[in-house]
Every structure is written in structure tokens, then in C-alpha cells.
Specification:
Elements: E1 3-8, H1 15-31, E2 35-40, H2 74-87, E3 91-94, H3 99-102, H4 105-113, H5 122-129, H6 131-140, E4 148-150, H7 161-171, H8 175-183, E5 188-192, E6 202-203, H9 207-220, E7 224-228, E8 233-240, E9 243-244, E10 248-252, H10 259-263, E11 268-271, H11 278-294, E12 300-307, E13 313-319, H12 329-336, H13 341-353
Parallel strand pairs: 1-2, 1-3
Antiparallel strand pairs: 4-7, 5-6, 5-7, 8-9, 8-10, 8-12, 10-11, 12-13
Helix pairs in contact: 1-13
């Protein structure tokens, strides 16, 4: 039996997702026979047992607004540091998504304390969360990626479409790509470069949506990533240890796989294993394991692709701390691979403490 602290919450749009996952993970750890505790970063001095939920109700139809988010200031970081140090846990599961929770900062704190923790280290976490950098790395090892460009804009500015286009032109090194965006705004996607849970994503249909999407990301304080829209099927490959689990296909019943479809039961169908040719499944597993290894990731991740009509796999992103709610994809893949949720939690403990 190991003593495990699950850290969850955070101060970004994925806060409820993290709290829901924290509740599930501590329960799963306890069911597997471990001494499990959890901590909401909004209250870094208090640890609670598995039977005391941190999230009251469902994740919700939309991300939490600013009033729900609790910023971890300098004193909060010191309190968190002290709580972890004083209780002498065997390991920590930092079940945080996006921002400082998945981008290397909390990992740096845990490395400084010297306590084993679930997930990738500081460097790999930072590289993976940075979508444009992970795109470049994926492309460098031979994976097909969507054309993408990070836009350089000034936070707080209000943009017209022409201003948005100027941001694109001044950012891009490919004039043909800039012209394509202006002439075909319905074939591009805007994403927060450091975001997750599809928060802030715009699949543009026209100039106005491109403008509005850019403004949304600027207001979030993130950097806008402009990406070519790739038609096709949405598939994902969970990784456990350093091996790919069965690939899943994600099929929203309406629209695309946004926050509401992702976290509302009955809004999306999950096909596991994905109904694809064995050659495609093998190739997806190989690609996922390759980018996982190239980034230096460890323990767990989820690698997202688009599968085009011509059966080409296009890399989208890698998540080094994927969700662990009852609608999350890694537990689904693990179950198909023979691990129920408590067994998956126990395997996490073994990976961290081996």
C-alpha cells in the first residue's frame, strides 16, 4: 500500500475537469488498496479523503468563469510546498490540466521537493503543452502535421478582421499560407497554444468567426495558434507506460468535440477499439509511441490525430496529463486493454514507484 496525494483544481478553464478527475482517481486508488488523499489548489493547506467530493455535481456544459477560478499566488505555492513536504506521501499525482499544472511548473516544484510523481517531467511537460513546438518536433521525426503558425498579437487589443489578417501576415513565413487564410477563412482552426479541453477553439466558417476566435484567445491571455483544418475522423491513442493502448474514435452526435460534447454524457459516442484497418491501428500506435519517446514523456499520455478520407494520420497534439473523469479516453482505452479503473490506478502507482 502506498500513500498518494492527488493534486487537482488549478485556476484555468479546465478546473472542474481536474476536480472531477481528482475525485475519481482518489476513489480508484482507495479501491485498489492505497492510502489516497486529495488537495484542491484553491485550498493548498487542506487534504481530504476519497469520500469527500471536491466537485459538487457534473463538470458542466461550459468551462467555469473567472469567479470560479482560484489563483495560486506566491503564498499559495509556499503552502502547497509545505503541505507536500510535511505529510511525507510516497508519491503525488498532479492531476492538473493546461497552464502551470501541465506545462512544467508544478512538475518543477515536485522535482525540487524530490518526491516521485505521476506524469512527464518538467521539460517534457513544457514541450508537449506548447502545441507549435510539439508540431515541429512531430514533423521532425516524420509525422504528418497540419500546417500551423503561431500569431504574434498584443494582449488586450480589440481586432477587426483586417487586423487579424495583418497579425497572420506578420507572423507567417509562408506568403501562400497567408493568402490561403484570407481567401479561405472557413478552412482554418484557431486554438490557444497552451490550452486544452477544446476551450477557446474556433473552427472558422467565415471572416467574422476568425476574428471572434482570435479575440477570444487574446482575452484568455493565451497565444493564438492558426492551424489548417483537416477534414476526417477524430481518433486518439492512449499510452500507458511506454506502450500504446487500443485506439479510440470520437464521434460527437452533433457539431465537433467541444467542451459540452466532451463532458456531457450521451453527447458523444466512443468507439473502442476504433473501427479501422489493422494497418492504420498499428501505424497510429507507432506514431504515438514515437512522439511520446521523442519528447521524453513517461507514465501516461494521449496522442490525438485526424484520420483523413485517404487514411492519412495527421498529428494534432499530445496530452501529458489526460483527463481521468468517467468520460475520459485513457480509462476507456485501459479498460479495452484489460485494466478496470482501480487496476489502472494501481498500475500508475507501480509506474511512479518502480
Amino acid at each position: 500500500m502506498a500513500s498518494i496525494l492527488v493534486i487537482c483544481g488549478g485556476d484555468n478553464a479546465e478546473r472542474r475537469v481536474s476536480l472531477s478527475g481528482g475525485d475519481a482517481v482518489t476513489t480508484g486508488l482507495a479501491d485498489a488498496g492505497h492510502d489516497a488523499w486529495k488537495l484542491d489548489t484553491a485550498d493548498p493547506e487542506t487534504i481530504v479523503p476519497p469520500n469527500q467530493p471536491l466537485l459538487d455535481g457534473p463538470v458542466g456544459l461550459a468551462p467555469p468563469d473567472e469567479t470560479e477560478r482560484a489563483t495560486l499566488d506566491r503564498s499559495g505555492w509556499l503552502k502547497l510546498f509545505k503541505t507536500i513536504s510535511d505529510h511525507r506521501f510516497d508519491a503525488v499525482f498532479p492531476l492538473l490540466h493546461g497552464g502551470w499544472g501541465e506545462g512544467g511548473q508544478i512538475q518543477a516544484v515536485l522535482e525540487l521537493i524530490g518526491i516521485p510523481f505521476l506524469g512527464s517531467d518538467m521539460r517534457s511537460s513544457a514541450l508537449a503543452l506548447d502545441k507549435i513546438r510539439s508540431h515541429h518536433i512531430a514533423e521532425s521525426i516524420g509525422l504528418r502535421v497540419a500546417k500551423a503558425e503561431l500569431l504574434h498579437v498584443v494582449p488586450g487589443n480589440v481586432f477587426s478582421f483586417n487586423d487579424a489578417y495583418r497579425a497572420i501576415v506578420t507572423s507567417t513565413i509562408d506568403p501562400e499560407w497567408a493568402s490561403f487564410v484570407k481567401e479561405s477563412p472557413h478552412q482554418v482552426v484557431l486554438k490557444p497554444n497552451f490550452g486544452g479541453s477544446t476551450v477557446g477553439i474556433t473552427i472558422s466558417k467565415d471572416e467574422q468567426e476568425l476574428h471572434d476566435g482570435l479575440q477570444t484567445i487574446i482575452n484568455m491571455g493565451d497565444k493564438p495558434l492558426l492551424e489548417e483544418y483537416v477534414p476526417g475522423r477524430e481518433v486518439t491513442v492512449p499510452i500507458l507506460g511506454n506502450q500504446a493502448l487500443p485506439m479510440l474514435e470520437i464521434v460527437p452526435r452533433e457539431g465537433y468535440y467541444d467542451y459540452q460534447n466532451k463532458y456531457t454524457k450521451g453527447m458523444t459516442d466512443y468507439l473502442c477499439p476504433a473501427p479501422v484497418d489493422e494497418m492504420i491501428n498499428t501505424q497510429a500506435s507507432s506514431y504515438a509511441e514515437a512522439i511520446f519517446a521523442e519528447l521524453g514523456c513517461r507514465h501516461v499520455a494521449r496522442v490525438d490525430f485526424r484520420l483523413t478520407d485517404s487514411n492519412q494520420l495527421v498529428f494534432l497534439e499530445i496530452n501529458t496529463m489526460p483527463g481521468m473523469t468517467d468520460l475520459s479516453l485513457v480509462p476507456m482505452g485501459a479498460k479495452e486493454g484489460g485494466l478496470d479503473f482501480p487496476a489502472l490506478m494501481n498500475h500508475f502507482v507501480e509506474l511512479v514507484l518502480e
